[in-house]
Amino acid sequence: MDFNQIGSVAIALLTQFGLKIIGAILLWIVGQKLIDFGLKLVKRGFRTQHVDPTIVNYLVNIISVTLRIVLVVALLGFFGIETTSFAALLAAAGIAIGAAWGGLLANFAAGAFLIVFRPFKVGDFITAGGVTGTVVELGIFATTINTPDNVMTIVGNNKISSDNIQNFSANDYRRVDLVAQLHHDVGHEQAIALLKQRISQIPNVLKTPAPDVEILNFSLAGPVLAVRPYCSNDNYWQVYFDTNKAIREVFAEAGYPAPEQRYAFSSSSQNIADSLMPSPSIIT
């Protein structure tokens, strides 16, 4: 075989390989487009059936990963690689990866648990895994939460399911817990009446149940009032800050003195205090 024949064979092989590369690239691009298009159709179908967005996102993520694995296997078959052996290799690799990435599998299982029992859904305001905020997405392995200070926080599903979950959006309303310190000489009945009247006028404070204003406990400065209006979750912080302002304004308008701590000294305490004072004879 002369060099011309070797060159012809090489060119033919390179041409064939190049065509396969181009075909693989086209297959990958077309496959990705078809997968994206199919996922859009799936999302649209779920939305027309009014399926919960949390379940939709979870199922779409699983379908997306599965279809992309199928696409990779199809590309390997396009190049003539035996896919049955690849499937066995993939299964073995899955076992090895599962042993090494036990945390990810735990997060995956926890995600399935959250989907089945649904302690919260997308859009709920929750505290979970030590993070408080609005649920943006419940993914396969993690949940995305936007905190009130607008920080996107991603929390592993296993951490969420293994900890307490508080869902503030589950009920129609919630209570704002505040306190107001009174001076010893201030009559608590008048202060309670004034606060109830003013707080009931705050926007978005619910009429039913009515705001609670009662004596909570006693401190060295005087009685401490529990001030507890009720509102929807969306208006919590507005009611919280407006109630604080109302407490200050009511006390100022009523002319209440500022709270001050009082200490009761017994005769024995006074004797101890006098003994600690230096004797006049040693003062120079």
Task: Please give a handful of descriptors for the protein shown.
284 residues, alpha+beta, five-stranded antiparallel beta sheet, 10 strands
Question: Could you describe the 3D structure shown?
Answer:
The chain is 54% helix and 17% strand. It contains eight helices and ten strands. The strands form three sheets. Strands 4-3-2-1-5 form a five-stranded antiparallel beta sheet. The protein has a three-stranded antiparallel beta sheet with strand order 7-9-8, covered by helices on one side. Strand 8 and strand 9 (222-228) form a beta hairpin. Helix 1 (3-48) runs antiparallel to helix 2 (53-78) and helix 3 (83-100) crosses helix 4 (102-117).
**Structural class of the helix and strand makeup?**
alpha+beta
Reported for the largest beta sheet, the result is: 5 strands, antiparallel
Poorly predicted ranges (pLDDT <50, ≥5 residues)?
280-284
Give the rounded overall mean pLDDT: 82
| Overall geometric form | rod-shaped
Q: What oligomeric state do the depicted chains represent?
A: single chain
Strand order of the largest sheet: 4-3-2-1-5
